[in-house]
Amino acid sequence: MQYHLLENSKLKQRNLLPRQTPAEMVDRSGGAEYVELGERSSPKPDKHQKVSVMPLVFLIFYEVSGGPFGIEDSVKAAGPLLALLGFLLVPFVWSVPEALITAELGTMFPENGGYVVWVSSALGPYWGFQQGWMKWLSGVIDNALYPVLFLDYLKSAILELGGGLPRTITVLALTIILTYMSYRGLTIVGWVAIFLGVFSLAPFIFMGFVAIPRLNPSRWLVMDLDHVNWSLFLNTLFWNLNYWDSISTLAGEVENPSKTLPKSLFYALLLVIFGYFFPLLVSTGAVLLHRELWTDGYFSDIAKMLGGVWLLTWVQAAAALSNMGMFLAEMSSDSFQLEGMATRGMLPELFAKRSRYGTPLVGTLLSASGVILLSWMSFQEIVAAENFLYCFGMIMEFIAFVKLRIDHPAESRPYKIPVGTTGSIIMCIH
Predict the structure, then answer these.
(1) Quick check: 193 pLDDT over 50?
(2) Pick from 30, 173, 236, 323: most CB atoms within 10 A?
(3) Are the C-beta atoms of 172 and 304 separated by less than 8 Å?
(4) CB–CB of 284/219 below 8 Å?
(5) Which segment, 71-80, 133-142, 263-272, is predicted with the most confidence on average?
(6) What residues does each domain of the chain span?
(7) Which of 422, 397, 415 is nearest to 114 (CA)?
(8) CB-based contact 75:291 (threshold 8 Å)
(9) Contact at 8 Å (CB) between 84 and 75?
């Protein structure tokens, strides 16, 4: 007979497990107390404002993307045609399945903790805990990158930020300010994400208009298969098209999640594809191709070619602020994941306590501390560690998705991917 550790009340209303007698409430092998689904009383209603569709769209946008900054290497690695096709078609192979699984399981289990809840329900609390700490560590490692990248965009104007004590102090101060914004409430973070998202994408829309007289469609068709760096190309695509599942960790904070979560994931998918494809389309069509120049920051140079110094400044500011948006979104997901794990008994109850703004206080502080401790890592080290942890987590999620389809086919799923068990397996393998 399979039991779950301290399931929260939303799951307890589901009859995923057989009922048990009081004598069965204790696991005799380890002495730990287990609670059967349906036995616990419902929690007090959450008085804090829930997240609606538009803020959730931009939170997902920043979990996954944040704009086209960092995709320039795709052109350097493979040329314009493959880069354009990659960011137009690969999302349907990789991002769409991940987003669909997030929509189905996120509405099946509309509670904080997300993928930890999915894996725990399918494979048991041991594997749920492994999933939780590895995904949390992955998120913290990822978040340690953003304050550093923010300063990298400013150091050309403020030379003191290039290194030494001033840079260290600034990274620390920036982390504290952004953590405080996360602490003040998810609603504030969501609306800040909307502002930052619009600001980050607006210069590329303007670039599209000023580039019209200079567009040459033949430049989009350039491809040289003999000189494709497939490793760099595929890593760039993968790096910029993952983390759709991160929003699931705060599903309990979403207004009417059964409708809001799938709808927001769909809109966010369109926004992410547009945010990558349109800047690439404009930039590769408007300037002569020099593949060796297509590295991080080249969009700024193209902006200067097309609109002058003021447009260059706008793109650089958008790139810098985009890192703030990604930090806020990641911090929210990490802290609410810890809160969800505490609610399930996987962490001390202290992690489940909330501030007066409705945010997980201890989870936020712990995540911020991890960011500060890991900020010394290099970009290459962060990418290597994060990709390993992320891949492990995704394998666990795919297994949980298929197992829940097999073990509990009749369980309520407000949003269900229109494929059967075989289709689910094929989708995950593909």
Answers:
(1) yes
(2) 323
(3) no
(4) yes
(5) 263-272
(6) 1-40, 50-429
(7) 397
(8) yes
(9) no
Architecture of domain 50-429: Up-down Bundle (1.20)
Owner of token pair 């509309």: 110
| C-alpha angle 93-322-59 in degrees, rounded to nearest 5 | 60
Maximum CA pair distance of the chain? 78
Res 146 pLDDT > 70: yes
Give the pLDDT of residue 17.
37
Percent over 70 (pLDDT), the chain: 83
The count of residues in the chain is 430
**Cα distance between residue 204 and residue 375, in whole Å:** 30
Report in angstroms the alpha-carbon separations of 57 from 265, 304, 357, 405.
7, 30, 21, 27
375 DSSP 8-state letter: T
Tokens of 354: 């909330």
Contact present, 191 and 52 (Cβ < 8 Å) = no
What DSSP string runs through 102-155?
A: HHHHHHHS-SBTTHHHHHHHHH-HHHHHHHHHHHHHHHHHHHTHHHHHHHHHHT
pLDDT-based confidence at residue 398 (cuts at 50, 70, 90) = very high
